[in-house]
Amino acid sequence: MEDKISVIIPVKNEEGSIKDLLDSLLDQTHKPDEIVITDGGSKDATVKIIEEYIARGYPIKLIKTTHAYPGKARNLAVESSSYELIAMTDAGIKLDKNWLKELLRPLEEGHDLDVVYGNYEPVTDTFFKECLAIAFVPAPRAVSGALMRLHFIASSLMKKKVWRSVGGFPDFRAAEDRIFMEKVGEGSFRIAFAPAAKVMWNIPSDFRSVFRRFSLYSMHDLMAGRYNDWHLAVIRMYLAAIAAVLLGVFVSPFWFIILALAAIARILFTVINKTRDEGPLKKFNIAKVVLIGIIIIWIDIAMFSGLIKYFMHRMAKGRA
């Protein structure tokens, strides 16, 4: 088995996180043979920081472009990589020191595999982040006797032929990773999971950054034609809520009780489903439930904001 690995990273304006990522990569128990980074047009000190690492002799190849969404950035990095095995991660992430070693383990055990997906954990170092993680991060599942979150492109290893076969990543700001992994899943590739190959994902830390991120995701998910992933379910839910309000006004106040119970049930279902199997997230109280509920509604508002931006963008293009 070829064990030389190219690590692929797309970045843009990541001066606050790129050092942690590179330091955790360079501290791996199985060292990457090269790190290929595409900068998609940073306006901050990201490129300068990367170039400082290169000047110190680390095996980093930097590709600079004026504009690249994550999909295009990954494609450029893969095209420039030297080895058949490629591991993928992202800015805003810190890697466990055994991450690469554990991603490689299924291949070293003699399994004829094409793709290995690793694990990820949200960084929950504040009360807000802990509640946000419960609100939107998928719950882990049992895999080979261990809990892990599945299918995270920023914790993955694959043969370059897989990337070639599915035509690379689409050039979108959001959903490009889901589209890519769906194509991989639909192919005849041999896939394994490595629960011990863990990365720590730094999620937003306040309401402002949550709104900005989910409004952006919403708009670009629609641009990618992924309205079934998220938008339709939320829109239907709010249409039902509007219907309940109208019934409450014109038929019976009883419908307001139904609406309130439905909202509470949504929040409690999220909390129970997400915390059922997790250690620190099992411990929740009324304050946590209330904040989770507020965050869920805030994400819904951000989704509608992205929806409006999408239609404004379409109208502007139509007038051009």
Would you write up a description of this structure?
With 320 residues, the protein is of the alpha/beta class. It has 2 domains: 5-201, Spore Coat Polysaccharide Biosynthesis Protein SpsA, Chain A, CATH 3.90.550.10; 207-319, no CATH class. It contains 11 helices and 10 strands. An 8-stranded mixed sheet has the order 3-2-1-4-9-6-10-5. Strands 7-8 form a two-stranded antiparallel sheet. β1, α1 and β2 form a beta-alpha-beta unit.
Keywords:
11 helices; 2 domains; Spore Coat Polysaccharide Biosynthesis Protein SpsA, Chain A; 17% strand; single chain; alpha/beta; 320 residues; globular
Short description:
This protein is of the alpha/beta class.
Write the layout of secondary structure elements.
Blueprint: E1 5-11, H1 18-26, E2 34-39, H2 46-55, E3 60-64, H3 70-80, E4 85-88, E5 93-95, H4 99-108, E6 115-122, H5 127-136, E7 141-143, E8 146-148, E9 156-159, H6 160-165, H7 176-186, E10 191-201, H8 207-223, H9 231-250, H10 254-275, H11 286-319
Parallel strand pairs: 1-2, 1-4, 2-3, 6-10
Antiparallel strand pairs: 4-9, 5-10, 6-9, 7-8
Helix pairs in contact: 5-11, 8-11, 9-10, 10-11
Largest sheet, strands/sense/barrel: 8 strands, mixed
Number of strands: 10
The computed structural class is alpha/beta
In total, how many domains does the architecture comprise?
2
CATH superfamily of the largest domain: Spore Coat Polysaccharide Biosynthesis Protein SpsA, Chain A
Number of H/I helices: 11
Strand content: 15-25%
Helix content: 40-55%
Q: Rg to the nearest angstrom?
A: 21 Å
CATH architecture of the largest domain: Alpha-Beta Complex
Average pLDDT confidence is 92
What oligomerization state is this entry in?
Answer: single chain
Shape: globular
CATH class label of the largest domain: Alpha Beta
Q: Spell out the helices and strands N to C.
A: EHEHEHEEHEHEEEHHEHHHH
* Distance N to C terminus: 54 Å
State the CATH topology of the largest domain: Spore Coat Polysaccharide Biosynthesis Protein SpsA, Chain A
Low-confidence stretches: none
Q: Record the strand order, biggest sheet.
A: 3-2-1-4-9-6-10-5
